[in-house]
Design brief:
The complex is a heterodimer. Chain A is mainly alpha-helical. Chain A has helices spanning about 1-20, 75-85, 90-95, 105-110, 125-135, 140-145, 155. Chain A is flat, with a radius of gyration of 20 Å. Chain B has a domain at about 305-425. In chain B, strand 17 (about 310-320) and strand 18 form a beta hairpin. The relative contact order of chain B is 0.09. The chains are: A mainly alpha, B mainly beta. At the A-B interface, helix 1, helix 2, helix 3, helix 4 and helix 5 of A face strand 3, strand 4, strand 5, strand 6 and strand 7 of B.
């Protein structure tokens, strides 16, 4: 157990060293740190392909289109492309919905006027969650995994 | 434990090395501050006494400093704190605030290597956690992209101290702009010296002809030795329609059974032996420049329970900027009557109302009807209205809103919110 831990950890250290050594090997293309400010994005969730082609030899815009259901399903994109997200979003934008540590307020209570977002848990959620939570609880643990946020659930779930 | 000490010490050392070793060409420091103050008012029953005033004030503060427009050194932080104006027992068992992140970042302009030290979120494959530690990411040549991180998990700090808590992991991806990306990720999380999660992930995106793409994620629980999840989806653009068929398979034992980590209600789910298969189809149709139609159909199939389905339809009309009005109607058809409900939502946001003396107006109405009454009520109504405007070139934004709710828990509940957002930029 201990041995495995050390080997796992040193493997990562090794990887970090290799990475540092590899900085000489350049990537041919990386997304910019920030999406160009003069692109005229506006405040709306962007449909990337309104301004960009669907894909080229460097990048696939199509998958990042913020269409009606993007607020419900962006995880496949985020698993691979968090530096794409950070071109336009600061981390705090994600934190307000993602209870990776304690945030206390549900997204729709924190920003009730952001009706243009698909904030989870609107309306009668405290009643309805028992149904959604029993029929498909898989999404719940993605945000309610750690003991710190479980204090919200403890009064009823022990 | 030696290893742990050394891991947190390594964090501090690397941080110091970073600061000491940094080239002393200090470019202009940009500063961005955003302060969000929110004051709520509502009535709650506390300790058997009815209708007591609850009035928390929240402050959310974000500070970014350093080189923000270009690669280089920068500092980023975000946190919140609560002041209880009514000062009663309502918030007794809760934390009064939290630093959500606070880290120093160095993005190397030459190589693109990115180093972060401090409290931060890591994201990549199975890693999706808040850590106090270090993360290094970057491209290794034209096809490889890597991320490694290590430190202490923030979520466990309250559980029995944290000297014996540890998290580390990483992701290695191989990508090609035209074809897609394949990633392998690993995470190990220990709470009080016991494995809380050990997971291996595979993430995939494959770009097929006709602009179709396939994305997927598989997650293996290395602690309980079984596949926790396989989720795969296709995006098929048939302009102006886009369809997204998806499939997911979950084994609760391995998905929810994450060692000592599992908190209730998930602990119960981990031992009930259920397996879930999800099949769904999301369709979005850009009907015209201003109108979007969308349809969601989802079916759940289980080993133990009987199947359930959900369907919903949505129409949204868009105006300038954030202006929009929409309606959504959905029906959840669980196997039992107590698992069935109708959900309707009417929402709107009117932007650019300066000529009427306000900036925006928002409205949200959610009405749900339960096939079997819950606590004697067979429906619920939620109404939220808000107005706001900004001053001083968007540096200050003021907002007022009120939420009304009549549901199985409350006969009539009213919650008011007053918020002030202040932004400061120095370039």
């Amino acid at each position: 157990m201990m041995l495995k831990k050390i080997s796992g950890f040193s493997f990562l250290l090794l990887l970090a060293l290799v990475m540092t050594a590899c900085v000489a090997l350049r990537a041919e293309w990386t997304p910019p740190l920030q999406h160009p400010a003069d692109a005229g994005l506006g405040k709306r969730p962007p449909i990337c392909t309104d301004c960009h082609e669907a894909r080229n030899e460097n990048f696939n815009w199509q998958r990042f289109n913020h269409d009606t259901f993007f607020g419900d399903n962006h995880r496949q994109q985020a698993y691979q492309g968090s530096r794409v997200c950070s071109m336009c979003h600061q981390q705090n934008f994600c934190n307000d919905c993602h209870a990776s540590t304690s945030v206390e307020l549900t997204p729709s209570v924190k920003d009730p006027s952001a009706t243009y977002r698909r904030s989870p848990h609107r309306g009668d959620w405290i009643t309805r969650h028992r149904i959604e939570g029993s029929l498909d609880p898989t999404s719940c643990i993605r945000c309610h995994r750690n003991p710190k946020t479980a204090t919200t659930c403890a009064p009823c779930h022990g | 434990m030696k290893l742990r000490l050394s891991s947190s010490r390594a964090t501090v050392m690397a941080g110091l090395a970073l600061i000491v070793g940094m080239p002393v060409t200090l470019p202009a420091v940009e500063i961005h501050i955003q302060s969000d103050t929110r004051i709520y008012g509502m009535e709650r029953d506390i300790g058997g006494v009815e209708g007591q005033m609850v009035a928390p004030g929240y402050e959310y503060l974000r500070i970014d400093a350093g080189q923000l427009q270009e690669k280089g050194f920068s500092f980023h932080s975000y946190g919140w704190g609560r002041l209880d104006f009514a000062d009663n027992e309502f918030f007794e068992h809760r934390e009064d605030g939290e630093l959500l992140y606070g880290y120093l970042q160095y993005a190397d302009p030459e190589s693109g290597l990115d180093l972060r030290v401090g409290r931060q979120t890591v994201a990549g494959g199975v890693g999706n956690d808040a850590i106090d530690g270090l993360q290094l990411s970057g491209d290794l040549g034209p096809w490889l992209v890597a991320l490694v991180y290590g430190g202490q998990p923030v979520g466990f700090s309250s559980d029995n101290g944290r000297t014996d808590d540890l998290i580390y992991g990483g992701r290695l991806g191989i990508h090609q702009g035209r074809f897609g990306e394949l990633g392998v990720s690993y995470k190990n999380l220990e709470n009080n010296n016991v494995i809380a999660e050990e997971a291996l992930g595979l993430d995939l995106s494959l770009f097929l002809p006709a602009n179709i793409s396939l994305s997927g994620f598989s997650n293996r629980n290395l602690d309980s030795k079984g596949w926790a999840e396989h989720s795969y989806e296709l995006q098929i653009p048939l302009n102006p329609v886009l369809i997204r068929p998806y499939f997911g398979e979950y084994d609760y034992e391995h998905y929810f059974g994450t060692g000592v980590n599992t908190v209730n209600p998930f602990r119960v789910l981990a031992i009930n032996g259920e397996k879930l298969r999800v099949i769904g189809l999301d369709t979005t149709w850009k009907y015209s420049d201003a109108i979007d139609l969308a349809l969601k159909i989802k079916g759940n199939d289980y080993d133990r329970m009987n199947g359930s389905e959900y369907a919903s339809g949505l129409v949204t009309w868009h105006g300038a900027e954030l202006t929009q009005v929409g309606v959504e109607v959905g029906y959840m058809k669980g196997d039992l009557d107590k698992q069935k409900y109708l959900l309707t939502r009417l929402f709107g946001y009117l932007d650019g109302l300066e000529e009427y003396g306000i900036g925006f107006m928002s409205g949200d109405v959610v009405w749900a009807r339960y096939d079997q009454p819950i606590y004697g009520k067979d429906d619920s109504l939620f109404v939220s209205l808000g107005v706001g405007r900004d001053f001083l070139d968007e540096a200050v934004e003021v907002e007022l809103s009120a939420d009304y709710s009549r549901d199985p828990y409350f006969d009539a509940d009213l919650r008011g919110l007053f918020s002030v957002t202040y932004r400061y930029d120095h370039e």
